[in-house]
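Aim 2 progress. For Integral membrane sensor signal transduction histidine kinase, the working sequence is reproduced below.
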Amino acid sequence: MPAQGTSGWVPLVDPAQAERRPHSPSVRRVVGRFVLANLAAVILLLAGGAWAGVEAAEDEALADARRTTDLLAVLLVQPNIGEPLLAGDPAAIADLDAKLPDRLARVGVIRVKIWDADGTILYSDEPRLIGMSYPLDEEDKRALDDGVTRAGVSDLGRPENRFERPFGRLLEVYRHIDGPGGQTLLLETYSTYGQATARQVEIWWEFVPISAAVVLTLVAVQLPLGFRMVSQLRNTQRERELLQQRSLDASTEERRRIAGSLHDGIVQDVSASALLVARAADELRRDQAGGSPRQVAEVLGEAASALRASVGSLRSLLVEIYPPTLQRAGLPMALADLAGRLRPRGVDVRVSVPDDLDPPPDVAELVLRTVQEAMRNVVKHSRAHTVEVTLTQTPAALVLEVTDDGVGFAGAPVAAETRDGHLGLRLLADLAAAHGAGLDLRTAPGAGTGLRLTVPLP
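Predicted structure tokens for this construct:
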């Protein structure tokens, strides 16, 4: 009976940590994307801050212009408007001209216009505009009606603004004022946009430290993440390269094993058959010189038997490489075929498989590969007389156990060195890990060997 061993099961692959590793992009590509994403975020942050600064500066400049115009209207313009000024009296116009320029210059106002409700300019510090009539726009009319001071960037394309064009971009403010006889008048002032520009610079310099702090914090937070990501990618890439190398080693070992099987088995049998056929030919030649036909028939019979044995060996090798019964008759029949190959070698193989077993194709292939490797080790190393193959299925997992009563070996060191040691165990461990399965080893010198494969089911 198979030995149970005393050392217990030693895990070669932990199913909780085994998983299929997805293909990962190159480190250079991921780091490049990471850097570009951060640069894009910084550029968007700075652009948003600049836009917000421009808007805030312009709004603040317009608010300052509205306050300035309100003060001019209440303190300077409205108290100095009389009937002579509205009638176009040159003396009244000259008197207001003498009072306005210095005070306007101190508050940054470069042009003043006073309109009546019909769109006639009653006064301006630009004398060529006095007496000219232009249609009032909707904003001007609303300012006359509701008395709310309004401001905006001046439209220098309008004809009444032609004399302001040399000053460049301007802030325009218009508000309602009352004439000496209760007339509804409109005061309009123009200020240089330089106030808004200067305020933009001030806000920008206030915003720069905040932006720099945010950017530096963002970089400081993401740099460790970036380095960690690069490290993980490099580890993943190294593991992929190691798995590829192991696959190459396993493929080389499999080719070496097949070549050895062909050389030691079929090639030798065919060579012997060739010698027997050559001997028969010699006998035929001697027969023509008086030899015995019976001897020729015996030699040819031996050659035929050797060739039949060679064909049988070749078929067995083909079945081992890819068992046709796995797809045609299912896993239980394929395991029975494997067991039948060991019985002629004096090994009693007992297979216990549920009748209703129907695992997924990839799981069935994994189980078959594991049993193949275990039986190959029995033939090569264990010198066992009995092997038990037990397959059980639960709703959560499929469990395979292959145990023998052979010589065993020191299992713990082998398990610890599976990645660099025994190629068969290393191959099985890689296969189990690739399928998310667990693999355990139980063995000890003189106590036989056991392998247990645990495959989670979906």
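The chain has a mean pLDDT of 76. This observation will guide construct design in the next reporting period.
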